[in-house]
């Protein structure tokens, strides 16, 4: 047995399934947005880039059952950013949990002795998924098939997507109508279409969104779409496809993907 002989310290994160949701830094960002009414001012006050701030907000909004941050347009000040009431309650809850967490760490420091057990615990805590898109949703309908079942999921803002699962997976995950789940979709499995393309496609999922960001890589480009309900979806396409489609910031596009491309996860 290896003795640690060290003080246990840490900062708390609240996760939803396998996805990081909020931690101290994100809570501070939410507080700054609430105080300053602007994502730009909040990011500057925290010493972070505007893009990094929005990436954090997108992640929180996507995995939360309710929107945390909303953008305002127009008005005397030309718009801004504000927290929802749900977000304010989350900030208060986090602070209360943080107090209990610090008390727990003090007790844990007196008890942790077995390094191997401690290491195994940390490996479980650090597990993450590689899927670029991770959405919180509620199962609204299940169509049972002989081999596969079709699961209809409602996201925030009433956006819907469909996933197919084997009968065994449906049983193992204990899924039923009303269950809360996380839908995981890899960005390369999403293809983009113009709204006026005039094509009927076989993909079960076809979501309408507005292009909010285009990030260029060496070979591919990542296109970020914001759906009507505030959910942010990311697709990876080639630069050639980006040029062929002539995609521009602010335009509407359809994001299409097969039901078989949607993986479902529930808290263990």
How would you sum up this structure in a few lines?
This protein is α+β, with helices and mostly antiparallel strands and 268 residues long. It is built from seven helices and 14 strands.
Identify the strand order in the major beta sheet.
7-6-5-8-14
Dominant shape = globular
| Name of the CATH first level of the largest domain | Mainly Alpha
When the domains are counted, the total is: 3
- Full CATH superfamily name of the largest domain: Winged helix-like DNA-binding domain superfamily/Winged helix DNA-binding domain
Termini distance?
Answer: 29 Å
Q: What share of residues are in beta strands?
A: 25-35%
Which percent bin holds the helix content?
A: 25-40%
Radius of gyration: 21 Å
SSE sequence, one letter per element: EEHHHEEHHEEEHEEEEEHEE
CATH fold-type name of the largest domain = Arc Repressor Mutant, subunit A
Whole-number mean pLDDT = 82
What kind of sheet is the major sheet? Answer: 5 strands, antiparallel
DSSP, total strands = 14
What is the number of helices? Answer: 7
Uncertain runs with pLDDT below 50, 5 residues or more?
Answer: 121-128
Task: Kindly name the structural category.
Answer: alpha+beta
Annotated CATH architecture of the largest domain: Orthogonal Bundle
């Amino acid at each position: 047995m290896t003795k640690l002989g060290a003080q246990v310290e840490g900062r708390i994160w609240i996760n939803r399934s396998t996805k990081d949701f909020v931690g101290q830094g994100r809570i501070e960002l939410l507080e700054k947005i609430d105080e300053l009414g602007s994502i730009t001012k909040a990011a500057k006050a925290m010493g972070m880039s505007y893009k990094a701030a929005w990436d954090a907000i997108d992640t929180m909004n996507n995995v939360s059952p309710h929107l945390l941050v909303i953008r305002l347009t127009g008005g005397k000040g030309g718009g801004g950013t504000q927290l929802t009431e749900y977000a304010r309650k989350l900030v208060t809850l986090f602070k209360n949990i943080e107090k209990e967490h610090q008390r727990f760490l003090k007790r844990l420091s007196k008890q942790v002795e077995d390094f191997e057990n401690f290491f195994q615990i940390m490996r479980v805590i650090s597990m993450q998924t590689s899927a670029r898109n991770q959405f919180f949703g509620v199962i609204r309908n299940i169509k049972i098939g002989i081999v596969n079942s079709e699961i209809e999921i409602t996201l925030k803002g009433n956006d819907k997507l469909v996933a197919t699962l084997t009968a065994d997976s449906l049983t193992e995950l204990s899924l039923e109508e009303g269950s809360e789940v996380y839908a995981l979709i890899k960005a390369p499995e999403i293809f983009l279409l113009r709204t006026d393309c005039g094509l009927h496609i076989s993909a079960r999922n076809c979501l309408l969104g507005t292009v909010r960001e285009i990030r260029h890589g060496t070979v591919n480009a990542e296109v970020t779409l914001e759906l009507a309900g505030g959910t942010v979806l990311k697709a990876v396409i080639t630069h050639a496809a980006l040029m062929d489609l002539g995609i521009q910031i602010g335009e509407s596009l359809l994001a299409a993907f097969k039901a078989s491309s949607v993986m479902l996860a529930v808290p263990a």
